[in-house]
Design a protein that fits this description.
The complex is a heterodimer. By secondary structure, chain A is mainly alpha-helical. Helices cover about 65% and strands about 0% of the residues of chain A. Chain A is globular and about 45 Å long. By secondary structure, chain B is of the alpha/beta class. In chain B, strands 3-2-1-4 form a four-stranded mixed beta sheet, with helices on both faces. A two-stranded parallel ribbon of chain B has the order 5-6. The longest helix of chain B has 20 residues. Classes of the chains: A mainly alpha, B alpha/beta.
């Protein structure tokens, strides 16, 4: 017998911190709140149809990832047509704080500047701690392609931010 | 995994796992209280939106009482569950998730009327509840017993036998007693007003001391002086 679905509030309390973290790593702070709302509203709507025993953590983090992509797309539509969406960083100067130019900050702005697939792969692997199979289905590509995107992303991060 | 290990120095792995500064609510950036405040405000906005759009099937809250905090749960139809303080909240919610729907969220506003009516009742200023009820947790026989019970007036009492008779099963006193003991909406559906035929108090799901206290409050028996909080 698989475990029945927990009451939604418990599910929300358990995963909201990680969802918030993943969202903050993927979109500018000004969009994080909306992404958070959209993630849990979508989860709440779909919740009763979920099979008991599902991996709730992977499920909600995958939804959150999808909502951050929606936010990127919405931003791209608002932006000037010349802007290159793929190379558009998520960190804005408004997010940076005076006097904080640490390696961590630099690294995360480099993550924000990665092409979308590589950024997704890095965020889903390291923040969401998802296996390659789940990363592949979240991105919508093969497992090999997900591995490649992750590898390329990490290589780029090492170039941009030397240890 | 191997792939990343080769490709990821320890520091990079660590920084990536920690998440961007000012986003984490755990280590190692938890010194930044704004992250937590932002998450809290996002969660509060989410709760308001769920309530405003009616997206939950069941909501629940705590309500103060002389017995301690009661857990109240309601569907869109009405109040569906009142749980005494000693009942494990997670256990109650898990049962509701299985019986009704897992779309259960905490919400205070839908219970404003219930909270007010309970306050008035416990203060002796209310003799009957005007709250909509949902009988979804009660079977057909139990429903007949509890419908009868709901009509026993404030200050009055009835017997298990009368409850059984009213439910169409005159010899079913024991079954009526079980149905009353399983009343999911105690206090509001006054199962405490049903006693043994001889006048002995009988049982109560919330403990016999509480039954005595409630009957005392309503003036059906001399008021009990001992603490309402203890369960029997």
């Amino acid at each position: 017998m698989s475990k029945p679905l927990p009451p939604f509030q418990r599910f929300l309390d358990t995963h909201r911190g990680e969802v918030w973290r993943l969202i903050c790593a993927s979109v500018p702070r000004s969009e994080a709140d909306d992404c958070f709302q959209e993630t849990f509203i979508a989860a709440l709507r779909a919740y009763p149809r979920l099979r008991a025993g599902s991996d709730l953590r992977a499920w909600v983090l995958t939804i959150a990832h999808r909502k951050t992509l929606d936010a990127h797309r919405a931003r791209a539509r608002r932006a000037l047509p010349v802007a290159d969406v793929e190379e558009h960083g998520t960190r804005t100067t408004a997010d940076a704080r005076p006097g904080e130019t640490s390696r961590d900050e630099a690294l995360w702005s480099a993550v924000g500047a990665l092409p979308q697939r590589q950024r997704s792969a890095v965020v889903l692997r390291f923040l969401a701690d998802l296996p390659h199979r789940d990363i592949a289905s979240a991105i919508g590509c093969s497992e090999d392609a997900a591995r490649r995107s992750l590898h390329e992303g990490l290589t780029k991060l090492r170039e941009v931010v030397p240890a | 995994m191997r792939n990343e290990k080769r490709n990821t120095p320890a520091w990079l792995d660590q920084v990536l796992r920690a998440g961007p500064p000012h986003s984490t609510t755990g280590t190692p950036h938890d010194a930044d209280a704004t992250a937590l405040a932002d998450l809290r405000s996002a969660a509060a906005r989410l709760a308001r939106r769920i309530a405003a759009e009616g997206l939950a099937d069941v909501s629940y809250t705590n309500a103060d009482s002389p017995f301690g905090p009661l857990l109240l749960a309601a569907t869109k139809r009405g109040l569906v569950k009142v749980a005494f303080p000693e009942q494990d909240v997670d256990d109650v919610l898990e049962r509701l998730a299985r019986r009704l729907s897992p779309r259960i969220v905490e919400a205070s506003a839908p219970f404003d009327d219930a909270r007010r009516e309970l306050d008035e009742y416990f203060a002796g200023r209310r003799r009957e509840f005007a709250l909509p009820l949902d009988w979804a947790l009660v079977g057909p026989f139990g429903r007949r017993v509890l419908h009868f019970t709901a009509k026993i007036p404030y200050g009055g009492v009835s017997s298990y036998r009368q409850a059984a008779t009213a439910a169409g099963s005159p010899r079913g006193s024991r079954a009526a007693g079980n149905a009353l003991g399983a009343n999911p909406i105690p206090i509001v559906v006054p199962c405490h007003r049903v006693l043994r035929s001889g006048g002995a108090l009988g049982g109560y799901g919330g403990g016999i001391d509480r039954k005595r206290w409630l009957l005392g409050l309503e003036g059906a028996i001399p008021a009990s002086s001992d603490a309402a909080r203890s369960s029997g």
